[in-house]
Design goal:
CATH superfamily of the largest domain: NAD(P)-binding Rossmann-like Domain
Strand order of the largest sheet: 3-2-1-4-5-6-7-8
Number of domains: 2
CATH topology of the largest domain: Rossmann fold
Largest sheet: 8 strands, mixed
CATH architecture of the largest domain: 3-Layer(aba) Sandwich
Strand content: 15-25%
CATH class of the largest domain: Alpha Beta
Structural class: alpha/beta
Radius of gyration: 24 Å
Order of helices and strands: HHHEHEHEHEHEEHHHEEHEHEHHEHEH
Shape: elongated
Helix content: 25-40%
């Protein structure tokens, strides 16, 4: 695959690197990468891959751009809010380097389509933020013998590796044989993330992709890099393939893709609002407007979140303190519990129920739903 004169000018700083040179840049141009996710990690990955001259970039993302994405998802701008992330990503990538072929897959990756999505690409990069997709991506890459360039982020910490059993290393399941219980690990929407962190981890992932493409350097196969932004410290752990791994071990038992939502213990959303433990924000408003109903409302978000947005008259007991403060509540009273979106308030409900509280309801959608459906003056964050 030859380079034209414009490409030679564009990639000149690569070409004068002895480790890359003309031959290496041709390999970069010949390479194809599937980027799963066009969010925090996918943004720097896709942009730097495009700038480096990767010949074909596939983007898998079914989501749309939200204002809360803009603090870290640099593929997208203010004007892209409400647009398809895949479409927005394609436009940005083509603006960086029109020589790159961009293929968008505006769909959710699943057990039904993962193998077909991944098969045409040389390298897969995981820019996802949930466990079912991580295990799905891992298993599909092992089955197809594709390198899986992994990264994850949360708050101020991130990690990266390359999972490639066909290159002698472990897979994601060797490191994490079982997913954590549902809700145990908060999402970035619940726990937050430093905006620049995915840029750092995403750049590490992109570096690994380019090294794989040109066949130079020592890759992260068999190594896990841990980064703490607050301390500005990197650590490294050595990883080994688990000989008993059900996917990449000596005697694999998983030879085809499974139902990863079930594997991760995630129950499907009911088609109708038939959950007896849930109430709507409209019902919460009725309780607040009519004290004679005897229903009390509590907010289990953290103090920093309460300062950003709260509902007047609703007291706060953070989920992190509920084990030590639940005695402040009356076990015979009826409570509506809310958080940001309904995840942590359900955890609080389950804990309180274990302490003998019987009259509890979780507010579906939390303060985000309140802002959208009841009072738009309450900020969304």
């Amino acid at each position: 695959m030859e380079l034209n004169n414009d490409e030679i000018r564009r990639y000149s700083r690569h070409l004068i690197l002895p480790e890359v040179g003309l031959a290496g840049q041709k390999k970069i141009k010949a390479a194809s990468v599937l980027c799963i996710g066009a969010g925090g990690l996918g943004s720097p990955i896709a942009m730097y891959l495009a700038a480096a001259g990767i010949g074909k970039i596939g983007i898998v993302d079914f989501d749309t751009v939200d204002y809360s994405n803009l603090q870290r998802q640099i593929l997208h701008t203010d004007a892209d809010v409400g647009r398809s992330k895949a479409e927005s990503a394609k436009e940005t990538i083509r603006g960086i380097n029109p020589n790159v072929e961009v293929v968008i897959h505006n769909t959710r990756i699943s057990s039904e389509n993962a193998l077909d999505l991944i098969r045409p690409y040389d390298i897969v990069v995981d820019g996802t933020d949930n466990f079912p997709t991580r295990y799905l991506t891992n298993d599909a890459c092992v089955i197809l013998k594709k390198p899986n360039v992994y990264g994850s982020i949360f708050r101020f910490e991130g990690q990266a590796s390359v999972f490639a059993p066909h290159l002698g290393g472990p897979c994601y399941r060797c490191l994490y044989p079982e997913p954590p219980p549902p809700g145990m690990v908060p999402s970035c929407a619940e726990g937050g993330v430093l905006g620049v962190l995915p840029g750092i981890i995403g750049c590490i992932q992109t570096t690994e992709i380019l090294k794989l493409a040109i066949g130079k350097g020592t890759s992260l196969v068999g190594r896990l890099v841990l980064f703490n932004a607050l301390d500005m410290k990197f650590r490294e752990l050595k990883l080994r393939r688990d000989l008993a791994c059900p996917v990449c071990g000596d005697h694999p038992t998983i030879k085809e893709l499974i139902d990863y939502e079930v594997f991760c213990g995630i129950q499907p959303e009911p088609e109708h609002n038939g959950n007896p433990d849930e109430v709507t924000v409209q019902e919460m408003k009725k309780a607040l407007d009519n004290p004679n109903l005897g229903i009390k409302v509590i907010d289990v978000r953290e103090p920093d979140e309460y300062e950003i947005a709260h509902i007047t008259g609703v007291p706060q007991i953070p989920l992190s303190q509920i084990e030590s403060r639940f005695t402040e509540l009356d076990p015979n009273a009826q409570y509506y519990i809310h958080c940001k979106s309904g995840v942590r308030s359900m955890k609080a409900l389950q804990f309180l129920r274990g302490q003998g509280f019987k009259y509890l309801k979780n507010v579906k959608g939390g303060i985000l739903a309140w802002s959208e459906e009841i009072d738009s003056n309450v900020p969304r964050y």
